[in-house]
Amino acid sequence: MTENAENAENAENAENAENAENAHEELEWLDAQALTEIIEKIDNDQNFIYPEAVSTAISEITLAVHNSYRQPDDNPQNLLRLILQVLQRRPVPRLSMTISRSELAKNPLILQLLILMQHSINEHQHDDLQKRLIWLAIAMHTSVLLTQHWPKKQTKNILMQFKQAQFSGSSRRTWIWRELPDLPQMTMSVESICTIFTVLLEQQKSAYELLNDKQATHAEEKKVAKDKLSQIEKITTAYKNAHTSRKPRPKYKKPPKHIKIITINLADNTSRLPLDSTATSHNWNTTPSNDTWGNTRDDIEHSAIAIDLAFLEANTESHEGLTTSFEERIDHYEAPYVSYGEYPNPLIKHSIPLQTIDLSLQQNYMSQRNLALNSNTRLLSLAGYQALFAALNQDANTLPETETDKTCAGILLLSMITGLPVKSLIIPGYIGHPNIFKIKGKKYYIEHSLGITERSTSQTLPEKDYENTFDTIKVPLPSWLIDDLLACELPLKEDFTAYLATLRSSLGLPYLSVNRIETALHVVLSRYTPDCHAHIADIICRTPASHAPAMYYSSHTSEALMAHYKSALNIFNSNSNFDLTYITAWRKYTVGSGFALKIETVCDIINEMKYWTDQSSNDEEHFNRTSIFVWFVFCLLTGVRPNNGLGKMYDIDLDMGWLLINDKPVKKVKSDRLIPLCPTLIRHLTDYRAYLINYQAKHQGHHDISAIIDNIRLGNDEALLKLLYERAPTANSPTLKDIKRGDAYHMTKHIIDANPYWTRHFVRTQLEKLGVSLSLINTVIGHEKARQEVLGRFSSSSKADIKRVASVFEKIAAQLGLSDITINHYPNSNHVGTSTAEVDHANK
């Protein structure tokens, strides 16, 4: 046995001995008065009022078990005699003794157990009646102990599992009675009973694993084995917890007055480390060459490269009545792809072979980053992450409290399972700070909001019309780890450096660094967790908005995100030494953009817009309403950013079904991309072009309008979608102008009072719900990394891949009813109306 293993075993034995020694001392508070108060609260969600006889009976049985533990040499037969005396008094009234699922469910669980115990002695229905009574009484006593320091779920678990074993007729529930020992083989001690449950648990684990290895095994047999394992696992965990002494939760230490700790805000991409904090004493802000703490050598992402920030400014539009949201600003940013401003050697500039080498290095960097090749030294292997996790967990659990390495291991472990920066965790008062760490009952968790686009305060959209309930993400934390870290003194940077050096040597991980620990959760979520991907990893790991714009459009369920997170920790926890029972399901709700609308709501909006269009009072009004309607259809079936001048005719190929678009028209650097056109959109655009030509024929005297429509018909550099507006009074005739987002908003405000950016949220969410891969969604929606668009140098998608997304857009069109909607000409073709308020607005 190695020295570490021996120390761990000794520490475990010492802990077990201490728990056994303190088990009875911890229970001195258990008396008749305390029991009465506890019993009335156990699983009593219905505010049930216990009859005095019932409350007294439960108290007496619980005290009898308690006294048996304190006198381990006492014969279990004496305990049984006391239980029978209580039950023979028939404390539960006859009217409450109806034994059915529905009637039992009306009572708290601890009373359900008493009813079943009383029923069993009345009916004498089991050969193993005496054994059952003892174990049901032990379950009652255990549930009372759990109320002191453990979540209510633990209490429910042990009561429910024994209730089902007694009430159910299924062998998958009653098997436990055959396996539990009879009275002559029982010893009323915590250690003995704990051993009984543990042995049963290991037997069921082995049986389940054996069935899993047999591929031909019937599915029903596996399900029975899984149910048995779940039953004994819940009982064992609850019993061990009830008899484990827990330290009182340490008090939170407030940070010094000069340190301000703010809530996690993904929209804020600035540093959260105040320059005047104690962090500066750790030499954080030195150059990479002198400080390898937070940097990985030769890592492009984490090296300090001088960049002209003015080049990165987002050039967004402004519209009357519409404020520019953070999302819109960040949506117009484009992260620079790092390349040489000046080649390190002037010869490269004039040498094609050397330029080719430079290009291949850029390609290699991107492939390493995106494909996780084995050659990527910026990441550890899966086995490396698992070995690191096991080492940190062991040190954080078993090292003496006085050891600095225990605290270092705890902080690194916390960073590994949350993605929180180590620099932040060692700021005094950060761990446990209410802005970051939340407490719900006896649980710790981190809470952060996507916080990018706030839900509209629209009068036209009630809450039920939105796709997602909240945009809040919660990550549960092991309370023992937080309590340990709150109780200790924070280590210095030198302590971490020494501890990491030891880990590198002992684990054989020469590339181990703080940065690789902080990014471990994201790597395992995005690369090794089944059915997970980088987008979900971004959400759970709180990736800043500028690096993960797809988060604006997320739509997931809270339980699905929690399942992915737990799966990632299970992958870390390959040796099963990390207790994951603290991860329990949150309330079920949908998580994501507060601005995403349900498809039924959008369908209603489309129908209202079409009705509004058809109700036009004159030709000009019909023209403008038709144009706005098609503008929304265009946005809903492409996901483009709803900016000005969408869809230049020379970029639209209606025959092949392609749209080449640069929907960041005010950006200094163009970022053209391809979007497939579905058949329904092609038909609407074709019909709209025919509508324009028909309008031209009816108004041949309007020469400016005729010239613009000629350019559209011939496919020249002219936006397809147009608004009609009146010129100044001195002009002879109206003309056409490109549609601005503000026009679309103001003209349809009575139908939907929301920034037209809602169309982009809707499309992005629907594409994911319809199963389009993340890389394709990012390509179509315009969230690909720089130079990785389909037309870029390092494209990650083919044109054929993108073309296939047209069928998904067609599904969206069908769900919105757009497949059945046609563009109609204004019925009174000879009528030339006067300008309306809407036409006037187009001139503003």
Query: Termini distance?
Result: 83 Å
Q: What share of the residues lie within helices? A: 40-55%
- Regions with little confidence, pLDDT below 50 for 5+ residues: 1-9, 11-29, 269-292, 295-311, 335-341, 829-844
CATH class of the largest domain: Mainly Alpha
The whole-angstrom Rg is 34 Å
* Domain count: 4
Structural class: mainly alpha
Major beta sheet, strand line-up: 1-2-3
**How many distinct helices?**
33
CATH architecture of the largest domain: Orthogonal Bundle
* Molecular shape: elongated
What's the β-strand tally? 10
Task: Give the overall average pLDDT.
Answer: 77
The profile of the biggest β sheet is: 3 strands, antiparallel
Strand content: under 5%
CATH fold label of the largest domain: hpI Integrase, Chain A
GO molecular function: DNA binding
Keywords: DNA recombination
InterPro entries: DNA_brk_join_enz, Integrase-like_cat_sf
Main attributes?
844 residues; mainly alpha; 4 domains; three-stranded antiparallel β-sheet; 48% helix; Integrase-like_cat_sf; DNA recombination
Task: Tell me about this structure.
This protein has a three-stranded antiparallel sheet. The protein is built from 33 helices and ten strands. It folds into four domains: 224 residues, no CATH class; 32 residues; 211 residues; 244 residues, hpI Integrase, Chain A. Strand 6 and strand 7 form a beta hairpin. The N and C termini lie far apart (83 Å). It has 844 residues and is mainly alpha-helical. One of its GO terms (biological process) is DNA integration. Keywords: DNA recombination. GO terms for molecular function: DNA binding.
